[in-house]
Amino acid sequence: MSQLLYIFANPKPRGESRTLRISDGFVGAYRDSHPQDTVIELDLYKENIGFLTQESLLMHNVEPGTGRDHPQLKYAYQFLESDKIVIAAPFWNLSFPAILKAYLDYVTVSGITFKYTSQGPVGQCQGKKAVHIVTRGGAYGQEPLKSLELGDRYLKTLFQFLGFQEFTTIAAENMDRSSTDVEAAVQSAIADAQQKAKDF
What we know:
Elements: E1 3-8, H1 18-33, E2 38-43, H2 44-47, H3 54-57, H4 73-80, E3 84-88, H5 98-107, E4 114-117, E5 120-123, E6 129-135, H6 151-162, E7 166-172, H7 182-197
Parallel strand pairs: 1-2, 1-3, 3-6, 6-7
Antiparallel strand pairs: 4-5
GO molecular function, one term: FMN binding
Organism: Sporobacter termitidis DSM 10068
Function: Also exhibits azoreductase activity. Catalyzes the reductive cleavage of the azo bond in aromatic azo compounds to the corresponding amines.
């Protein structure tokens, strides 16, 4: 049995967010095809994720196993103890909502999700896999805009740093172009997400 952590960062209601419609489709199909697994949903806006403080920075180099009840470190342990991660966030201003970066600062903790060794940092999330689900207003998956895309690139880099071996991106693009049939594009992305969820 595996544990899937479904993290979403969107202030819109779920039915109004194109990103969450796709990610909910993914997670729904995952539940159907993996009924024995545990799915934990984490709405970052409802969690009221804030920025790191001076106090919490002092907790960012801990002895393994300590600080489980700390209001921020609990997220790092939850992240570490999950086998699969789903991140759903829209593409905002060439990246993703700031609240997601704040959350990633919560979970990237030396002594929990990675450690420093004499050879340098080593990720502690070995054997885990992640999927990033995103909608974008333009075609940022290919040039000439690809080089401006900073959100998915950052997530891939960070997750590799933490030890993840598998990282998949499901992106619905051109959502804000006048020529796009948005509903058709969303439905196509949902179908793609549901298919990929079966083997996730």
